[in-house]
Amino acid sequence: MTFQPFAPLPALAITAVLVLALFGWAAFRDLKSPATSRGEKITWGRRAAILVLTLFVATGPSVLEERSEVAYINLDVYFVVDRTGSMAAEDYDGNKPRLTGVRNDMTTLMADFSGARFSIISFDSTASRQMPLTTDTRALSGWITNLNQEITYYSAGSSLDRVREELSMALRQGATRNPDNQRIVYLFTDGENTTDTERLSFAPLAQYVDGGAVLGYGTSDGGRMKTYDPSGYGNSKEYITDWNSGDPAISVADANEITALGNELGVPSTLMDAPTDLSAYSDGFNPELITSEGRRLVTVPQLILWPFTAVIMGLLLWELTWQTRRAARKVG
């Protein structure tokens, strides 16, 4: 037999000591008299049995059982998505926004790694983990479908430093919790960096990365970007303006930055201005091969509560019957 406590052991132990101490004091107070009847002794014995069994159930008595289950795929895929305003630049596949390519490529990669776990980290003015590692592809598809650039009013320019720490944290947590899993990172960006400071290197993250790619979007000629305001108060058909010239701002993809990011992470990189076959960036990670066995035996604890709870219920009914008769005698 093993145990799966319903509360942390220290808290359970402290609670048990306090409850047993109070119970012992109450029992001693009622039973210390030499005139204590046999019925009262039986009553306190019954109550003691209820208390001990309840505390025992709280420890989660279990037996270990072997079960056959489908082995999970030990492959974690991280999608890191640039949502800054520049990703709305209309220089992908003609005059489509760069995010159009991102949506299509995320959908393709999700299908390529069917059965893997996926996580989404996005960054704009801030970085956040939009979705923890999950196999829920419906939720993933919903996020991809609704992917848009950040709200223009809150835009603070482009900086890859914003996502570095969030990605580092996610990868380190994944490596700690599932050290045998393989981790693949796909960074979707145009490489643009509008800050004056030199960005931090992504090289320290490479130790946690087993594959993936830096997928760049846009052209060296650049494209205009429409504003985005989901509230409906702004005009999302207007183009973002260059504050210096007053003309529509132009975002140019930074091919050198995309290459540098790939080198630092130890993964290939590419700059795309049209739909591209991504098979070269997913080869070698066949989820069916990464799963070593189709099924596996696992040992899981199975709670066995019903025998003890049945006894507790019987004792409680006995206590209720006794209390009812006692009250009736007092009334009579």
Automatic annotation (TrEMBL):
<feature type="domain" description="VWFA">
    <location>
        <begin position="76"/>
        <end position="265"/>
    </location>
</feature>
<protein>
    <submittedName>
        <fullName>von Willebrand factor type A</fullName>
    </submittedName>
</protein>
<feature type="transmembrane region" description="Helical">
    <location>
        <begin position="48"/>
        <end position="64"/>
    </location>
</feature>
<dbReference type="InterPro" id="IPR002035">
    <property type="entry name" value="VWF_A"/>
</dbReference>
<keyword id="KW-1133">Transmembrane helix</keyword>
<dbReference type="Pfam" id="PF13519">
    <property type="entry name" value="VWA_2"/>
</dbReference>
<feature type="transmembrane region" description="Helical">
    <location>
        <begin position="303"/>
        <end position="322"/>
    </location>
</feature>
<keyword id="KW-0812">Transmembrane</keyword>
<keyword id="KW-0472">Membrane</keyword>
<dbReference type="InterPro" id="IPR036465">
    <property type="entry name" value="vWFA_dom_sf"/>
</dbReference>
<feature type="transmembrane region" description="Helical">
    <location>
        <begin position="6"/>
        <end position="28"/>
    </location>
</feature>
